[in-house]
Specification:
The complex is a heterodimer of chains A (557) and B (427).
Chain A: H1 13-22, H2 36-52, H3 62-74, H4 80-88, H5 94-104, H6 109-125, H7 139-151, H8 156-165, E1 168-169, H9 194-205, H10 224-231, E2 237-243, E3 250-257, E4 272-275, E5 281-284, H11 305-314, H12 317-332, H13 352-364, H14 369-378, H15 380-383, E6 411-412, H16 415-426, H17 434-446, E7 449-451, E8 459-461, H18 467-475, H19 477-482, H20 490-496, H21 501-513, H22 519-531, H23 536-548, H24 551-554, E9 555-556
Antiparallel strand pairs in A: 1-3, 2-3, 4-5, 6-9, 7-8
Helix pairs in contact in A: 2-13, 3-5, 5-14, 6-7, 8-11, 9-10, 12-13, 12-14, 20-23, 21-23, 22-23
Chain B: H1 17-24, H2 30-36, H3 38-50, E1 54-59, E2 84-86, E3 92-94, H4 98-101, E4 107-113, H5 120-129, H6 142-150, E5 162-165, E6 182-184, H7 199-220, H8 223-239, H9 254-260, H10 264-277, E7 282-286, H11 296-321, E8 328-333, E9 337-338, E10 350-351, E11 355-361, E12 369-370, H12 387-397, E13 405-407, E14 413-415
Parallel strand pairs in B: 1-7, 1-8, 4-12, 5-6, 5-7
Antiparallel strand pairs in B: 2-3, 4-11, 8-11, 9-10, 13-14
Helix pairs in contact in B: 9-10, 10-11
The chains are: A mainly alpha (557), B alpha/beta (427).
């Protein structure tokens, strides 16, 4: 549970909780041109363009932008109705109005929370975390915690505190349930919690320390000593297995803190040992990355080491920057550093001042995730078209260039986004309770996860534009459902409308790619109609299938 | 018929000419088209196939304990409980590898591997590419590189030229998604392969798709959109190809399945042999679970080594009996070895400074142990070899020129196998 803490600068629990209560009543106040943070982002990005003598692409048209912002904020493309409502809106500030609707309108709360809990579960426990029967992680528990947190718009720093200091049971419905425990439940028992050390530092502070476990790394400011000092914060933590009555099947995990005597056998002075490459043994106590020490006592009543760590983390500017960098990368396709979770001095940022500034602003604004989302989505770079021009085609991060955000970077949808888009746009496999739907979704997603066979649960996705993805899009059941033409289906409804054929075709294109068909595409549709013997529904089915399989559909652009 | 429909139906650019012709004949005529190929063409194809080179990477995810398997230190404090046994090659190996011991005249051990990456992700990347991770460039994995080089000999191959069985591999980097590993499970079952649509209609849909794709590429520029189109073409090729029969490992006789071992890795190796026969240039078979920080020797003797031993021995002897071994390189490795020192939990941790890999077949000499480590296994005492050196040696064995150079997207020239030096004893 979240506990009030002392000596945390510029952070007030009361203010955070107050903000949670009021966020949803916010009204449109300033136009984007007046929002201080948006102005600052634009200035920094434009300065960088000037420095490199590149010119940005034009603005994305409203249809593309609407699709983009739905995908990024609630994890799916807009429905035809939602898109049309936006296109026909005459409000000059309609982009801002849409962002606020997606963030604050109650009808989107559930989808918003689902999207961000999906994203964060993948960050915290991976796509495969908690999917194996023997896993110590309970994926439902993790998701429930995250969903509740995002639905309440919990301040980010509070989430960090809860994830790092969590105690209790991993499984919903059990006594002491605390879903936040799932982040660390399978990372504290083995190898002296090495995994907890590297995950907490990398995911939440942007510090890549895994190499320094065994030796000082030449390119990393982290030394082996620092690794084990950070590791010492996790040495009271234990993941206790709770079994199903009368069996050896794990029912759930209880993440607890226990008094430790360290490796020297003295709980008053609980030190740990590690080995240098030359075979010498050295001693470490809990010390934070900035050098702040805590008590050497191993008694939890004297010093709850994970709570102490969480408090220290909340004071660290790295926590702020990591949050900003992750969010920026989510919306713009690239972070200010690559990889996004390496903020060390050996890895300079593309826009270091802007990253610092946004980190400070986030701190000033009580770590409100929605506020940060507003700043980013209303900023100039997020409005730009994905169409490169001759004066910015050199701005291509795939060539190893630092991103300059002078056009929107094409990127593929995530598997989760595709699934949710098809469910919403076409009603594919949407029946049943939330749990039933969630199960269906998870089963479908699991086909793309491949493991690397390490104890650290490393994994990759084959939903990466390779053949298994293409096969699924060609022939998979989900696509079959999405292209069904029976009564009540998406295509069935469009086909049976009184509209002229041209209007039906428009609707299919708008739903899929947020634009109307080109002349060439209309010609193609007419030929298909002939080939289908004049059956409109079948022609629309062919077109819709082709659209779903196109680069234009699968790309966020 | 599409010919009546005029452009854009004439030649759907999303498919090869070979396929287009095949499709034009219509689904019912497909069988007879194949028969029309005639005996002489078939014989020629058989002859070509015989000379085709391939490579199989047996990837030991997690970092295998090579000091317990290939470079034993009996009697040393670091040695562990296993005994060495003699082999048909000029070396001894672990007692829990008795079947492979009889194949060692075909395989060589490089005992002086010395690398620097002891983190799983970094080690996997380095051992798969010959480069350390660099945020500004994505290097292609050896699988993609070798597939890319050997594919020229067999343009009729509809199966993706790089197949990864039972796990993930390293991606194609700047070579593009068309060279990505095609991941399948060890039972060879491929999801969503069935088209369940009338062939003619599928092709018409493909033509429509082509119009949409091309429009998008022209509007946005950049490689991301173009790559998608290439992958679609490969997918269509594979969906409609009879070559995909090669994945049906269940069609193998029971004795053969049992010879390889009726577990994931065994069947994966058997599948790899089928794919070599079908002309696939690079296959990776993954056996994970080597990250044994705790209780390592029980895990090795009870599960890992028996599985490995049976499958590796079966694969080597089966390839040899079929006359395929001389053209098929076998590479056995993981991301690193494990610490000579046995830790407090009776496990071994990550160790990259001195460890072993195994290679054989494909023009590489067998029966040798190259290089030496110190008496406790903590240091390499002869010339150290790297990922690049090992791969240069494999490339040489496969007849791929070491002068082959790629240009990364940002214009940086990159020598194949990272400019590694040959391990002279082996080629």
């Amino acid at each position: 549970m979240f506990r009030p803490m002392t000596a945390v600068s510029s952070f007030s629990l009361a203010a955070c909780l107050l903000m949670v209560g009021t966020a949803s009543h916010r009204a449109v106040a300033q136009s984007p041109a007046q929002v201080e943070q948006v102005v600052a982002i634009n200035k920094a990005i434009e300065q960088n363009w000037a420095d490199y003598e590149i010119r940005p692409s034009g603005e994305a048209d409203d249809g593309k932008w609407c699709r983009r912002v739905y995908l990024d904020i609630i994890g799916r493309i807009p429905s035809l109705e939602e898109l049309n409502a936006f296109l026909s809106d005459r409000n000059r500030n309609k982009r801002q109005a849409l962002v606020q609707t997606l963030l604050y309108d109650d009808k989107y709360t559930e989808e918003y929370a689902r999207n961000w809990s999906t994203i964060w579960a993948n960050v915290l426990i991976g796509r495969s975390g908690g999917t194996d029967r023997r896993s110590l992680t309970n994926r439902d528990g993790m998701l429930k915690y995250l969903r509740d947190s995002f639905a309440l718009n919990k301040p980010y720093n509070q989430m960090v505190y809860e994830l790092v200091a969590a105690e209790g049971s991993t499984k919903p419905g059990t006594e002491n349930f605390n879903g936040a425990t799932n982040f660390l439940a399978d990372k504290v028992n083995d190898e002296n919690a090495v995994l907890a050390t590297s995950s907490v530092s990398r995911v939440l502070l942007g510090q890549q320390v895994q190499c320094t476990q065994c030796h000082n790394h030449p390119f990393n400011q982290w030394k082996q000593q620092k690794f084990w000092e950070f590791n010492a914060f996790f040495r009271q933590s234990r993941a206790l297995r709770r079994y199903v009555d009368g069996t050896r099947d794990i029912d759930h995990i209880e993440l607890v803190n226990e008094d430790t005597a360290g490796e020297g056998g003295d709980p008053e002075d609980a030190m740990i040992f590690y080995e240098l490459r030359n075979g010498l043994t050295k001693v470490a106590y809990p010390v934070f990355i900035d050098g702040q020490e805590i008590s050497h006592s191993g008694f939890v009543s004297d010093s709850n080491r994970r709570q102490e760590l969480a408090k220290l983390m909340l004071q660290s500017e790295f926590m702020d920057k990591m949050f900003v960098n992750r969010m920026w990368a989510h919306f713009l396709g690239y972070g200010f550093t690559k990889p996004i979770d390496d903020l060390g001095p050996h890895n300079p940022a593309s826009h270091p001042d802007l990253l610092n500034y946004l980190g400070q602003e986030v701190r000033k604004h009580s770590y409100d995730p929605k506020q940060l989302i507003e700043w980013i989505t209303l900023s100039k770079p997020y409005q730009l078209s994905a169409q490169m021009t001759s004066s910015n085609e050199l701005d291509d991060p795939t060539l190893g260039e630092m991103p300059k955000f002078s056009h929107f970077y094409l990127r593929q949808m995530q598997a989760e986004e595709l699934y949710q888009s098809l469910v919403t746009a076409t009603g594919a496999s949407a029946a049943g309770s939330y749990e039933k739907q969630e199960q269906e979704r998870r089963k479908w997603l699991s086909q793309f996860v491949v493991a690397f066979g390490t104890d650290e649960g490393d994994e990759a996705t084959t939903f990466n534009g390779s053949i298994p993805q293409a096969l699924m899009m060609f022939n998979g059941d989900l696509i079959k459902q999405a292209t069904a033409t029976d009564k009540g289906s998406f295509l069935g409804k469009i086909a049976s409308d009184d509209d002229r054929l041209r209007a039906k075709l428009d609707n299919v294109f708008l739903t899929g790619v947020a634009r109307r068909p080109t002349r060439l595409e209309q010609t193609m549709a007419n030929k298909l109609l002939m080939a289908r013997g004049g059956k409109e529904a079948e022609m629309l089915q062919d077109i819709w299938w082709a659209l779903l399989n196109s680069n234009e559909f699968i790309m966020q652009h | 018929m599409y010919s009546n429909l005029g452009l854009p139906w004439a030649t759907p650019s999303g498919m090869s000419r070979r396929h287009f012709v095949k499709h034009l004949a219509g689904a019912s005529a497909m069988a007879s088209t194949a028969a029309l190929m005639g005996n002489s063409v078939q014989a020629q194809a058989e002859e070509m196939k015989k000379n085709q080179k391939s490579a199989i990477l047996l990837w030991m995810g997690g970092g295998p304990s090579t000091i317990d398997i290939w470079d034993m230190k009996p009697g040393a404090a670091t040695g562990g409980p296993f005994r060495p046994i003699s082999t048909t090659g000029d070396m001894q190996i672990c007692e829990h590898m008795p079947l492979t011991a009889k194949q060692m005249h075909n395989l060589s051990i490089v005992r002086s591997m010395s690398t620097r990456e002891a983190d799983h992700n970094r080690g996997r990347y380095y051992m798969h590419t010959g480069f350390v991770p660099n945020p500004n460039i994505e290097h292609p994995g050896y699988g993609s590189v070798i597939a890319h080089e050997l594919f020229r000999q067999r343009e009729d191959l509809a199966i993706p030229p790089f197949v990864s069985i039972g796990g993930a591999s390293t991606g194609p980097g700047f070579l593009g998604m068309a060279w990505a590993p095609f991941s399948v499970t060890s039972n060879g079952r491929i999801r969503n392969l069935e088209m369940k649509l009338e062939e003619k209609r599928l092709l018409q849909r493909m033509a429509a798709l082509d119009v949409i794709e091309t429009g998008f590429i022209n509007r946005t520029r950049g490689s991301a959109a173009t790559e998608h189109q290439k992958v679609l073409k490969k997918t269509l090729d594979l969906m409609t190809s009879e070559q995909m029969e090669a994945f049906r490992v269940e069609k193998e006789p029971e004795e053969m399945k049992e010879l390889y071992g009726t577990n994931g890795f065994g069947q994966g190796c058997l599948l790899a042999r089928r794919l070599v026969e079908a002309g696939v240039p690079f296959i990776e078979v993954d056996l994970g679970g080597w990250d044994n920080h705790n209780g390592i020797h029980t895990i090795l003797s009870d599960t890992k080594l028996p599985q490995l031993d049976q499958a590796m021995a079966a694969l080597t002897s089966d390839l040899e009996q079929r006359g395929l071994l001389e053209n098929t390189a076998i590479i056995w490795m993981g991301e690193f070895g494990r610490t000579p020192r046995i830790n407090a939990n009776a496990g071994r941790d990550h160790w990259a400074r001195s460890w072993s890999c195994v290679v054989g077949g494909g023009g590489i000499k067998g029966g040798l142990a190259v290089g030496e480590t110190s008496s406790d296994g903590t240091a390499v005492e002869t010339e150290p070899y790297s990922s690049e050196d090992l791969m240069a040696t494999v490339c040489k064995g496969l007849g791929i020129s070491l002068e082959t150079t790629y240009t990364s997207k940002n214009g940086r020239p990159m020598k194949i196998a990272g400019g590694g030096k040959l391990i002279r004893e082996l080629v």
